[in-house]
Amino acid sequence: MTKKFTGKHMATILVVGFGVVVAVNFTMASLATNGFSGVVVENSYVASQKYNGWLEEAARQEATGWDLKATRDEDGRLVVEALGAPSTAQLTGHARHPLGHRVDRQLAFVRGEDGRFTSSEPLDAGRWTLRLTLSDGDRKRVVETALP
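RE: above sequence
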């Protein structure tokens, strides 16, 4: 004996099917909005007008030949190696949590006898985006890097 397919069966299939679609959409929307604010630049038109200037500044910084490599020591302090930089160069930094869950931190560094820079205070464990600025007179090199 076979059961008869009725309107109730069809209604149940439609409600469950659309319920799954709506649930998935709400889940994906909440994950997207909670994980990233969506703002890369405040005003894309103004950013486009500054683009060539940004490229020129990047080329000037590349021409210095300096590079920065950041690690964390066992105490949580940042250790930055300034490759190719003069001994008179000074380093400053800014640490930002990628998702904004922690307060941004300004970083001060002390140059050691080995030429490496060490932050004066430890940085909390976790992922951080570092913006390091190495300057010597009118020359500077800005590097953004992720610290796991």
